[in-house]
Design brief:
alpha+beta; 3 helices
Length: about 100
C-alpha cells in the first residue's frame, strides 16, 4: 500500500492563499490540519497575510480545483458587515477586486 501524500490521508477540501510579498508572489505555508475554508477566512480577517492575491481550493480525492477568491471575498464582506466594521485595510484590494469580478 502506498502512503498518501495528502494531509491526514482523508478526503477533504484544501484551501491555500497566494500572497503578494512585494518582490514575489508565494503560496503561504500552512499547517496541513488548518487548510479548511473556515480557518483560511479567519486567518485572512486576522491579518495573517500581507496582500492576498487569491484563494484556491482543491480536493485531490475528488479530482477538482478552483479559484474560490470571489466566494471568500463575499464571505469576508458579509462577516464585516454583520459586525458593523470595515474590511481590514490589508484585504480591501482583494475584496474589491474579487467582488467586481463577480458582477
Amino acid at each position: 500500500m502506498d502512503a498518501s501524500i495528502v494531509p491526514g490521508g482523508t478526503d477533504h477540501n484544501i484551501y491555500l492563499v497566494m500572497d503578494d510579498l512585494g518582490a514575489r508572489r508565494v503560496w503561504r505555508e500552512a499547517d496541513a490540519e488548518h487548510t479548511d475554508l473556515e480557518t483560511v477566512i479567519q486567518e485572512l480577517l486576522e491579518g495573517q497575510y500581507k496582500s492576498p492575491v487569491g484563494v484556491f481550493g482543491f480536493n485531490p480525492f475528488e479530482g477538482w480545483s478552483r479559484d474560490v477568491s470571489e466566494d471568500v471575498a463575499q464571505e469576508m464582506r458579509r462577516r464585516c458587515d454583520l459586525k458593523a466594521r470595515d474590511v481590514p485595510s490589508a484585504l480591501q484590494d482583494f475584496v474589491e477586486r474579487h467582488e467586481e469580478r463577480g458582477n
